[in-house]
Amino acid sequence: MAEAVAGAIASKSHLIAEAGTGVGKSFAYLVPVMLAAAARQDREKGRKRIVVSTHTISLQEQLIRKDLPFLNAVLPIECSAVLVKGRSNYISLRRLKGAAERSSTLFSERDEVQQLSRIRQWAGDTTDGSLTDLGFRPLGSVWDEVRSEHGNCLSRKCPTYEQCHYYAARRRAWNADILIVNHALFFSDLALRREGASVLPDYDVAILDEAHTVEAVAGDHMGLSVTNGQLTYLFNRLYNDRTHKGLLLHHNLMTEQQLVQRLRYVADDFFSHIAHWLERQRGNGRARSPVGIDTPLMDDLRHLAVQMNSYAERLEEEAQKIELTASADRLVGLSLALDTWLKQSQDDSVYWAEQSGRQRQNIKLVSAPIDVGPVLRDELFNQVDTVVLTSATLSVGESDFGYFRSRIGLTKSEEIKLGSPFDYRSQARLIIANRMPDPSTQANEFEQAACERIKRHLLETEGRAFVLFTSYKMLQTCANKLTPWCASHNLLLLCQGAGTQRSALLDKFKQEDRAVLFGTESFWQGVDVPGDALQNVIITRLPFSVPDHPLLQARVERIRENGGNPFMDYQVPEAVIKLRQGFGRLIRSKSDTGQVVILDPRIRTKPYGRTFLESLPTCELIIDDDSH
User: What residue ranges define each of the domains in the chain, with the CATH number in brackets?
Assistant: First the structure.
């Protein structure tokens, strides 16, 4: 793999490299990357800058804290690497001082004032200035007042410019050979480059690790998302009549305070219209026309922004002026996003709305490109000399990268597929449930039968199991049914979505010796539990995407329009890669052993089941006929 990466860099070509768990992917791309950077320095006194992007924070930390320091110590070259974080991760010393001075008009809760005090104390000691160095997770209302912001920055005019942690980090990034970033920042930068801006310096080589997530993350950052919560939060920050706090109160802007009050009613009215529209669509099927809502919301947001900017122009102090203009920019940004969503003015995109919360009170308006491939083709693959895409799961079937390449717009590349050094034949067994109801036609019967099978398989390993679901609804139903049974067998049942963060759930799971973790989407991938704590992965259903999701429906329609077979060309390959990710949770080292149980009978009863089975590592296969 290292030779393939070195070859791609030397020939300025792109590379897809699938490498099974345990190959050592990070060393395989870091060594040639470091050698390439050093060779460029020696030859031209120039720089060959390389970006390494990962999906998970844990891999980022492994690269910057463990792998790169080790390689720098043993290789006969010197190479600088920095972890690049988004701007909002950094404290603004100027804004911190301003927030402290205005705290009586900004904060109404004792916790907020106490946290501000703790942040001030930390700011005097920190050398990093980022959230990860803070030691506690501040409330959003507090951090929002003190973080570094693009639209709220005086740059070189700032009195704290020389001490600024964000600009220090930026200088380190511009002078480094290797930049470690996450996919969110990488694709945010790519989206900005389409508008002529950027957050990262130019680079010659991009390594995208955990590349199976590229399509999803790129789509998220090339669309838009607006929630009623965002508007409420911004209104409260400007003026909260209940607590009598806010930025406008500090400046005694009475007319603007009244405008905020009006906007609350207008926004509530707008989102209640959206909620009613959604209710109608649930009765009539999917909406195929724009939402016909006549609202003054966008005009009122822009009007308030104009008023605030007009007042700010008369202020002499730059720091106070920019706080107001930055908030005005947020108002304009929300107005534009709402306008774009209502008019559906971005071509080749799909638009939808989502509701969540106990009373379905949270409403999110979303759009995403139907196909990110053309954008990535033009903005990434045709612009950067070398892009290396690597993951343990990129192919479908025995070694077909066609699905992955078509989804991300990569028309020409080298390919390499490397198996895992682990001996799956002796380390793992695959148990497939036989004589189970079909989940697509007998959902209730399947759920009941799945609960019985889960009990039996949990006893085989005394817990120490992940049970992976494709829907939170089924997870909750099974958890409720199995809670008394788990209690009677002294098994600790941990459930995703009960208010506990994923990392805390994982830590608890690793510490307990008889634990069972019920998880959905985020536990299928990027979760690492080596050792005895995890010996059993139970997969309830084949992980097909929810068929009525608007984005999936739009992509299915597009494939059909182009003469393809949406199910076999898109839905099956997508589910295969996700199943491979779920299977991959089990064996994380050469000493790990255990079993993967698949309860969905379609893997044997449907013709496409063969594609799923062929994509999994070769291991002992057991057909479980016991339906009791």
Answer: 2-80+176-220+372-418 (3.40.50.300), 88-93+100-166 (no CATH), 223-368 (1.20.120), 424-624 (3.40.50.300)
